[in-house]
Design a protein that fits this description.
22% strand; 6-stranded mixed β-sheet; alpha+beta
Length: 250
């Protein structure tokens, strides 16, 4: 299975975008955003910022001193609560000061989900709807894989016949994770746009955190996060992959 760094190396040596796309040989890729060290086992880097161990008070005997342990954890909790109260008090004081100054109405924050200029922006499309419309052009905002260059890439060589994502080795996009059904979802490229359908999976399929109804087709756009069970995947078509590979490896 290729990794982001492998594709970055191909891009650097390809000489041109056309050569890279020809060598890639697929229309889109799925990049792991939740990379694991083994079956459903998070890798070490998944815990950045979280202590890997808890220090306990030293003891001379070989028996676990429950009383000392409780006291130690209680002191840690008390310090944590004190810190939270201090932070809240400072925030409250800053708010009062801000309210005493002149204010103005800031323009509303516009997100992709707020843009209703195109009904095709809605990620759910009826299976009977024969058109998947593209939304208005916008600057792509996408999550970056925590593993960066080490992130696994799944090649989605899908056409009109579609391709299946699942745990079964016979699936065109095989992902060996227990939360994924043997035949979990179907990807299809139709009229230049990708769609995804949940194949009555046990743990469901989501696009950007919103669940798809069984057998209903949802449109996939560059930068979308496709969730299968508890596996998260970044969707990019081949053209966008070429453009954004430097961002994925930095």
């Amino acid at each position: 299975m290729p990794r982001v760094e492998d594709l970055a190396e191909k891009r650097a040596t390809a000489g041109s975008k056309d050569s890279f796309l020809e060598d890639l040989g697929v229309a889109a890729v799925l990049i792991r955003l939740d990379e694991r060290g083994g079956k459903d086992e998070p890798a070490d880097w998944a815990f950045h910022g979280i202590p890997k161990s808890v220090s306990f008070p030293p003891r001379d005997d070989d028996e676990l001193d429950i009383g000392a342990l409780r006291k130690h954890l209680g002191e840690r909790e008390a310090k944590s609560q004190s810190s939270k109260k201090s932070t809240a008090a400072k925030a409250k004081d800053s708010k009062k000061k801000a309210e005493g100054k002149a204010s103005f109405d800031a323009p509303p924050l516009i997100t992709a989900d707020d843009d209703d200029t195109d009904s095709g922006q809605h990620p759910w499309v009826s299976p009977d709807d024969e058109t998947l419309t593209a939304g208005p052009p916008a600057t792509l905002s996408m999550p970056l894989p925590p593993a960066r260059g080490a992130a696994t890439v799944y090649l989605a060589g899908c056409g009109e016949d579609a391709c299946v994502i699942g745990r079964d080795a016979r699936a065109q996009v095989a992902i060996d994770e227990r939360s994924i059904s043997k035949m979990h979802a179907r990807l299809r490229l139709r009229d230049g746009h990708f769609g995804v359908v949940d194949l009555e999976s046990s743990n469901g399929t989501k696009v950007n955190g919103r669940a798809l109804e069984v057998r209903a087709e949802g449109r996939l756009k560059n930068g979308d996060v496709l969730t299968l069970g508890d596996v998260e995947l970044l969707f990019l078509d081949a053209d966008m992959l070429f453009e954004r590979l430097p961002d994925l490896t930095d």
